[in-house]
Amino acid sequence: MIATLFAGQAIAESIEVTLENFTIAETDKYMAEHSAEHAVNTIRHSREPSSPDNQFVITENKDVLYSHALVDTQGGVTITNPDWDYLTMIQIIDEAHYTLHVLYAGESVTLTPEDLTTGRYVFLNMRTGLKSTDEDGVAEAHAHQDAFSIEAASAEPYTPKGFDSESLDAVRASLVARAGEADKPELFFGRPEDVDPEMFLIATAVGWGGLPYEDAVYISTIVPEGAAAEGACSAMTLPRPPLKFDEGAFFSVTTYSADSWIVEENFALNNRAAETDDDGSVTFRYNCPGQPNNIDVQPGWTQVIRLYQPVSAEAISDYVERINEEVKIEPAG
Fold first, then answer.
1. Which residues form the DUF1254 domain (predicted)?
2. N or C end of the chain: smaller count of CB under 10 Å?
């Protein structure tokens, strides 16, 4: 163990990160970074969609506006997502990276430390959908963000646990390299009883803060190979998934660097903005300028397919199995 500093405060020991403590260490990283700039129980709002210069959590996307808060549950806290007529979620994550609740519009929950798997703090990963990117659509999203509510009995500052950053980075990199093994998205995120330990471990490294399966499905197993991986013009066609489209559901493709961060301005596309085929499928293109549904990528790029609000676990599981067998990223003219 080694001495280190965080936000001007000395931490007596630096704890080596291993596979066994990685999920807690990675969560501590995000909690510590947030608390270094924002007081406990206060909300940081991102007013613009994610971009290379506006990203806080790994594998963000531009389908939603993000808000974040670190909340002290000691003595009780009530968290409320106000009424709205569009996609909005407050994801409540404890110190071990388990998702305890996902609050939709009009829902609230009261928590104490006894409701958590460990510790006393929770991280709120809030998503506010954009009805449109014009002035009115953005203003409406901002108004909803401002209505999020945290009523807490305690506001004691968070103390970083003192994990060693070099070993944290090394373990994360080793797990990101195993992303192709994460082939069971239904077991990525949720409560302890909802996840597979290995899937949860890899998913934490590749997509910390991801939603549980009933709320969103993440597919990272359809990857570029050969010339496509080097940035040659390529394409992938996704069939229309079984989602609650009448409730605002949608699907998207978001591309990243090899280590899962946004590096291009034109890095993502969802089905609402894309040109759609007659059967509801969408052909996404990569580095094919002048062609429909083009996304810009760099050599070594990766991608995540997001499917928001599945109609059922069974239907979306069948869909995921089908596209993992049938869908490829192929050269395109």
1. 40-98
2. C
Beta strands 282-286; 294-295: pairing state: parallel
Beta bridge partners of 126: 67, 90
Q: 147 with 83, same domain?
A: yes
Which residue from 49, 45, 56 is spatially nearest to 208, judged by alpha carbons? 56
State the DSSP code for 215: T
Half-sphere exposure of 10 (CA within 13 A, CB side): 3
Read off the pLDDT of residues 114-129 as tens digits, 9 standing for 90 and up: 999 999 999 999 999 8
> Which residues span the domain enclosing 290?
185-192+208-331
pLDDT tens digits, one per residue of 53-77: 988 778 888 888 999 999 999 999 9
Q: Has residue 7 been placed in a domain?
A: no
Residue for token digits 């009448």? Answer: 246
Identify the CATH number of the domain in which residue 256 sits: 2.60.120.1600
CB of 95 closer than 8 Å to CB of 178: no
> DSSP letters of 11-69?
ES--BPP-TTTHHHHHHHHHHHHHHTTS-TT-EEEP-S--BTTB--STT--SSEEEEEE
Phi and psi for 83 in degrees, rounded to 5? Answer: -60, 145
